[in-house]
Design goal:
The chain is of the alpha/beta class and 283 residues long. The chain contains nine helices and ten strands. The chain starts with 7 loop residues before the first strand and ends in a 16-residue tail after the last helix.
Length: 283
């Protein structure tokens, strides 16, 4: 199983290896405006064997490293959640959603943050699975709890105290929110001074799948103004869609960057922190 492709896996490859005892498929569908909708959709139909992970309950937790809207759970909580999903240290995990991979990328990043590299996001997600005519299952699925032991990779994480305009910051939100023209969620509009904008949806093609590696590199470099590297820091509103940009950078064959999980929801809550409006040199 360790020979399966990462960080993306296609429908045909996943269908070929179902079911395998060491394979764990996690449905991450979620609607920010209707938090119960993803779980309801999973109950209605899902990839056979898939368990469900809720963004608010499973992929977020008590704040320790950050104070954003979707805080990163502490390491012991992450180990507990992964184990409850049936993920062990020998598991190969495939995460999927129906939103272009945005929520699935959060689980992908969290596992890698805890040192678990055998994880991939289903390219094209639920829509690609259904469009390919693959079989689906209905009703709740439960996983046998596994023991998961991981150690945080601190070098993949940036905290608010470490954020500065000197960093190569890339904001994953839509351009109007980045520029401060609208802010439907957080108390203040704008972006971190010096940050440039690369909306996570720019990583996808019209078919909902990730663009080819060379095209991902071109798009990221064009928006950042330089080729992203291990020191690039991605952020968004609450540390979710930024994971999609981290995934895109890895899928492009570039070094894995860092993530500021607290993101704009944490940054803007302190009136003493500077806020920028409008565009930087790329917008």
């Amino acid at each position: 199983m360790t020979s399966l492709p990462t960080p993306l896996i296609d429908v045909d490859t996943l269908a070929r290896v179902l079911p395998r005892a060491e394979l764990v498929v996690v449905d991450c569908r979620f609607d920010l405006m209707a938090p119960a909708a993803g779980g309801d959709a999973w109950l209605e139909a899902h990839i056979p064997g898939a368990v469900y992970a809720h963004l608010d309950h499973d992929l977020s937790g008590p704040p320790t490293t950050d104070r954003g809207r979707h805080p990163l759970p502490p390491p012991d909580r992450l180990c507990e959640v992964f184990g409850a999903l049936g993920i062990g240290n020998d598991s190969f995990v495939v995460a999927y959603d129906d939103g272009g991979g945005m929520i699935a990328a959060r689980l992908w990043w969290m596992l890698r943050y805890m040192g678990h590299e055998a994880v991939a996001v289903l390219d094209g997600g639920w829509q690609a699975w259904v469009a390919a005519g693959q079989r689906v299952a209905h009703g709740a699925e439960t996983a046998q709890r596994r023991g998961f032991n991981g150690t945080p990779r601190r070098e993949r994480l940036v905290t608010v105290e470490e954020v500065s305009p000197a960093l190569s910051l890339l904001d994953a939100r839509a351009a109007p929110r980045y520029r401060g023209e609208q802010e439907p969620i957080d108390p203040h509009p704008g972006h971190i001074p010096g940050a440039r904008n690369h909306c996570w949806q720019a990583n996808l093609g019209a078919d909902g799948r990730f663009a080819p590696a060379a095209e991902l590199e071109r798009r990221l470099a064009a928006d950042l103004g330089a080729t992203p590297n291990a020191h690039t820091v991605h952020y968004c509103g609450s540390g979710v869609s930024a994971c999609h940009n981290v995934l895109a950078q890895v899928a492009a064959g570039l070094p894995e960057p860092r993530l500021y999980v607290g993101s704009w929801s944490e940054w803007c809550r302190d009136p003493g922190r500077p806020r920028a409006l409008g565009g930087e040199s790329n917008a």
